[in-house]
Protein: Basic membrane protein A
Amino acid sequence: MRRSRVTTLAAVALTGALALAGCAKDSGGGSTTPPAGGGTQASGCKFSPVPSGGSGGGGASSGTPAKVDASAFKVGLAYDIGGRGDASFNDSAAAGLDKAKSDMGVKETKELTAAPNETEDAKQSRLRQLAGEGFSPIVAVGFAYAKSVEAVAKEFPNVKFAIVDDDTVKLPNVTGLVFAEEQGSFLVGVAAAYKSKGCHVGFVGGVNVPLIQKFEAGFKQGVKAAAPDAKIESEYITPAGDFTGFQDPAKGNVVAAGEISRGADVVYQAAGASGKGVFEAAKGKNALAIGVDSDQYNQKTVENSKDVIITSMLKRVDVAVYDYVRAVAGNTLSSLPKRFDLKADGVGYATSGGKIDDIKATLDAYRQQIIDGKITVSDKPSN
Structure:
């Protein structure tokens, strides 16, 4: 049975003078601090004081790395459902491969794509095909490949594999590429609170699995950190085990439209290709939306809805794929981060379109608090 959760979180008291605001105007003199960087409180939320910091320090080093030659490599990419062109997760992986080709001279690549709800045998056959044709390294895009990567990597011990979103495969020729999705989602949660006119926002997940729950968890925590009285809708398109939730824009539209009809005026989606339907619902109902994985404001496949996309949570699969290929070519795999988080520039938020320029300093202040360990973001959603 589909697990569909719609959660309206009760108002949370903040120490001291924060009272329930709803859409009421602040009477002044209390503990509310205007957002840094020129933002306004037009949303009707009463905001928490903005943390100090946010000058931009604490990220990954911007030094120019040594040049690496990967021209002799044959790189294979096994995509998750949707493949190149999903405007999200897979496209980010594709961008990393494209950059490896241009920067490191990778000449031969092969890209294969998963089908919805396919068997383990199908996944293994795809990986086996790439390994048998001499491709190495091979990047499997998505945690659904975990069992198949483990099986095929044992058969081909001299082939190097990476798997995105999984670090459970403990073999010498397998590298896990995992992310702090909850940290990036926290930041776009803050953005949602500041941009909501009714202090009421929504989250749409593709499939109810622990990975997507990390997006939900961070988003909710970010919303509540910025605006403790905010209301949050939360729903998944399909339950665990039914991966069509990542490739069904029509259902994404229905779920998002339902949240908007209940009052959400900013909706964050972590739903793969189904996110296209979320954007369409937002545009059709005069709401705003937040993208995921890639900078979706600039994605051709969703350009008809770009005017409602205020930001995207950047999950830098492109960085991870590129850095992995580079590390294999340079024999420096041990240098890869254990987790691509805010500090490693593995997650973040997009500014394309200029719709969050007025709150960027506020977002960066929260970002620095997370990097410095002053805010710990949970990877499990609250109820």
Q: What stands out?
A: Confidence is low (pLDDT under 50) at residues 1-43. The radius of gyration is 21 Å. The first strand starts at residue 74 and ends at 79. Residues 36-53+181-316+344-371 form a domain with the Rossmann fold fold (CATH 3.40.50.2300).
